[in-house]
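User: Structure tokens for both sequences below?

Assistant:
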Amino acid sequence: MELSCKSEYAILALLELATHYQHGEPLQIRQIAAQQNIPDRYLEQLLATMRRGGLVKSQRGSKGGYFLAREPWKITIFEVLVCVEGLDVRTCEEELQPISADGAVIEEVWQEARQAANSILQKYSLAELCEKRDLHKRLDIMYYI
């Protein structure tokens, strides 16, 4: 399993918004794009998708921009991926039954892997990713001293 560029950019943008969440002021697309090195036009499309998905809100005007729709600890990485990628969250019973025994075994293993991945993605919130990032930054600083 691999994280798509689209999902990575979405998570990076949300991490930037989570970092500034306490300030209560929206961030403009160009600010987020510059901080996270994301192309402006692509970020604009991603933020529109996440706005429709209820992850971010937008504010118009000269002091307008984007901000998180909920607290960073209430938005999971799983939610972000479902919003951006439209991940298939069907249960086992909804899956089509494989025709052969080989197909059934493969489907069982794939379903188990998907459930494990989803479980981990549901466990982490934006706030926890911010904490992990901050820890990495502190460790990097200590390493160079």
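Moving on to the next sequence.
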Amino acid sequence: MPITVTHRDGALIAALSGEIDHHGARAMMDELGELIAARLPQRLVLDLSGVTFMDSSGIAVLLRALREMKRLGGSLRVTNIPTQARRVLDAAGVGRLITLD
């Protein structure tokens, strides 16, 4: 699952694509962790516009990114959330922990 990285308005933007499920979640967590460790962003935006499916493993990916950003004293925002992924995140109450746009 490729992650495309850009910068905008002082934020590091990581665009995720494909399926975020138990098959790919570990690799995605590792890739995001390496990205955060290398760039040390103060603001991370995860763009989910390219995500075609997400299950509870996707929640783990987001929570791990949140933990890494909090460790740096930074923030995390998730944007462009597809309908199916939004249902998963809303059902789990993730919006209480992470800003979902």
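User: Anything stand out in the second?

Assistant: Residues 42 and 73 are 7 Å apart (CA to CA).
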